[in-house]
Amino acid sequence: MNAIPTPAEATLGGVWTPTLTPLTTSGDIDSQRLVAHAQWCLERGCHGVGLFGTTGEANSFTVAERRAALEALVAGGIDPRRVMVGTGCCAGPDTVELTRHAVDLGCAGVLMLPPFYYKGVSDAGLLRSYTEVIEAVDDSRLRVCLYHFPRLSGVPLGVELVAELATRFPGTVTAIKDSSGDWSNTAALIEGCPSLAVFPGSETFLHAALKAGGVGCITATANVNAAAIRGVYDAWVSDDGRAERRQAGVSRARATLDARPLVPALKALIGHYREDPAWRKVRAPMIEFDDAATQTLVSELEGQRFEYGGRIED
Amino acid sequence: MNAIPTPAEATLGGVWTPTLTPLTTSGDIDSQRLVAHAQWCLERGCHGVGLFGTTGEANSFTVAERRAALEALVAGGIDPRRVMVGTGCCAGPDTVELTRHAVDLGCAGVLMLPPFYYKGVSDAGLLRSYTEVIEAVDDSRLRVCLYHFPRLSGVPLGVELVAELATRFPGTVTAIKDSSGDWSNTAALIEGCPSLAVFPGSETFLHAALKAGGVGCITATANVNAAAIRGVYDAWVSDDGRAERRQAGVSRARATLDARPLVPALKALIGHYREDPAWRKVRAPMIEFDDAATQTLVSELEGQRFEYGGRIED
Asked: First vs last Cα of chain A: how many Å apart?
């Protein structure tokens, strides 16, 4: 048995998925489908779900829509202790409002992007942003998972800055999601920020992260492949010799998905496998997959270590 | 005399400045200083002012803050027909709300960023974003100035897409601000989108744009150098032979400013020249200039073709 990874300050760990946000035909958030899908993710093996990460089209929704969806999720029976909420907006007061809301609802933590419009901002400026939010929320229940996703945010969180935030706010800044796709950066975070729970942003690095002292992963594709990804984690914990093989399988499925615009691809897959094409709908500036694109993707995933491919248990 | 530039569909033209947004000591928008500053910009020669562009720290404010500030500006006596309002947010419904608000207040137009969190989105997706907003606002008074600022938004608006929007929404999509800093792109827009009023996003290209069929510029530095920049425009209109020399002078001053983080630099200059240091304050993730940085900048601008340098009339 490998020890279940629990860094000193960590309250978060394991396989998490930032849930997709299903929409009604008019483009509003479909809270019924949202609750059902979050339930599915948890039942299929996720330790927790994220609401309004990149995969959840967070920034395509207003603050009011985001609040209402979280309230619906909790009212729908999802345990808030298994929910992490994306709250990082460009405007500090929006981030404060969403963060306070998540804390008040008892959520496990918040996933916090830096303000992402201005580029090339200084570490001092980013430190100021996070500090202002944390001090404004001013709540001992707050757990912040920093969110490093330079390709989309355009605002990298360097290891030094992350370490400074962890030192300045022990017990509050407790985790980081590294969506850089750069393993050397994830390794540097694990090494340089020992108090933080470090999650790579893709299951591609799950086994590597666990071996190096990371705590799991937060990954979009667990929306359609939770059990297989959880299988890697469980194999690592039980140290049964299957982790490497399972990792190779989920990595291959991930690569198939990464060759697509990920959010429309994942929504199309759910629409396909649940025979519920309404699931395809995305908000602009994204565009839905059509039948042909969906079918091609389904074919490519056939036989892979994939929820609907039937080869996830071994 | 050169003809004052008025493309077929244009209702906007000349020298516009996206106003800085002054803050109170607590970090809220200081609407009294905002009104006074907008008035100053207009008196010093701007044809109009923008509210909540990049220079106005637009995305650092909530929708409610942005609405309130525009209402204060209009209530404070600024003619809304001389105001263009930045309304492009990541969430379509926020863009719709701010755009409708600006139209209802009688503003000259809106400056509309594309949704800027997701990168690498397709032209079809961006077309969908703009179309959804324009159709939701559904108001014949709406005038959209597209906003191309790839370095900050990370979401370029290509010439083909811009031309398609101009064709699809004649009389509504009537202008574009090109903050690429790439003259060849501005020239391509003037050439490829004849119905649009094309504004370069810097006075550096003002004379070049006017000669090529552009309509003026929308420029941050007119917050501190309106009269000198207007001087280039007026010299071009009167064809008095001074345009080139004036252009060289304002371009040099601009280069001095471009070597700094522009928004804190401009706020520091206003704080200095108006002996009102409260003006320095910026919102995170920006950081204020300190005394030393301000003094260095002031020294470098001395004797230049600059509002406070005393050499703008010749």
From this structure: 18
Weakest-pLDDT range from A34-43, B162-171, B298-307: B298-307
Strand runs labelled E in chain A? 14-18, 48-51, 83-86, 109-112, 144-148, 173-178, 197-200, 216-218
Q: What are phi and psi of A191, to 5 degrees?
A: -70, -45
Among the partner-chain residues A92, A152, A154, the one whose CB lies closest to the CB of B284 is: A92
Tokens of B134: 């324009």
CB-based contacts of B175, cutoff 8 Å, min separation 6: B10, B12, B109, B143, B144, B145, B146, B196, B197, B198, B199, B215
Count the alpha carbons within 13 Å of B288 in the hemisphere toward its beta carbon: 19
CA distance A131 to chain B (A): 10
Distance, in Å, from the CA atom of A156 to the CA atom of A39, rounded to the nearest integer, reads 32
A62/B93 CB distance under 8 A: yes
pLDDT of B11 reads 60
The CA distance from A68 to the nearest CA of chain B, in Å, is 15
Number of other residues whose CB lies within 10 A of the CB of residue B313: 9
Rounded Cα distance between B46 and B84, Å, is 12
Instruction: Tell me the three state secondary structure of residue B230.
Output: helix
Radius of gyration of chain B (CA): 18
Closest CA to B228 of B111, B314, B104, B133: B314
- In our burial notation (b when 16+ CB lie closer than 10 A, e otherwise), range A25-63 reads eeeebbbebbbebbebbbebbbbbbbbbbbbbbbbbbbb
Task: Kindly write down the DSSP assignment for every residue of B274-294, as one continuous string.
Answer: TT-GGGG---TTS----HHHH
Instruction: Return the SS3 of B160.
Output: helix
Contacts (Cβ under 8 Å, ≥6 apart) of B115: A59, A60, A284, A285, B88, B89, B90, B91, B92, B95, B129, B155
Q: What is the DSSP string of A126-182?
A: HHHHHHHHHHHH--TT--EEEEE-HHHHS----HHHHHHHHHHSTTTEEEEEE-S--
B193-227 pLDDT, tens digit each? 999 999 999 999 999 999 999 999 999 999 999 99
Report d(CA A62, CA A111) in Å as an integer: 17
**Residue B197, class by beta-carbon neighbours within 10 Å (0-12 exposed, 13-18 middle, 19+ buried)?**
buried
Rounded to whole angstroms, the Cα distance separating A287 from B25 reads: 44
B274 pLDDT band, cuts 50/70/90, is very high
Q: Which of A123, A119, A130 is nearest to A159 (CA)?
A: A123
Beta sheet of A144-148, edge-to-edge order: A197-200, A173-178, A144-148, A109-112, A83-86, A48-51, A14-18, A216-218
**B50 - beta bridge partners?**
B18, B84
Q: What is the longest distance spanned by two Cα atoms in chain A? A: 51
Residues of chain A with Cβ-Cβ distance to B60 below 8 Å are 90-92, 115, 117
What does the pLDDT look like over B32-63, one tens digit per residue?
999 999 999 999 999 999 999 999 999 999 99
A50 neighbors A111 (Cβ within 8 angstroms): yes
Question: Residue A179 class from Cβ within 10 Å (0-12 exposed, 13-18 middle, 19+ buried)?
Answer: buried
Chain A residues touching chain B at CB-CB below 8 Å: 54, 58-63, 65, 90-94, 114-119, 121-122, 124-126, 128-129, 132, 151-155, 283-287
Complex ipTM value: 0.96
CA distances from A21 to A218, B38, B195 (A): 16, 41, 39
For chain A, the C-alpha Rg in angstroms (whole number) is 18
Biggest alpha carbon distance in chain B?
51
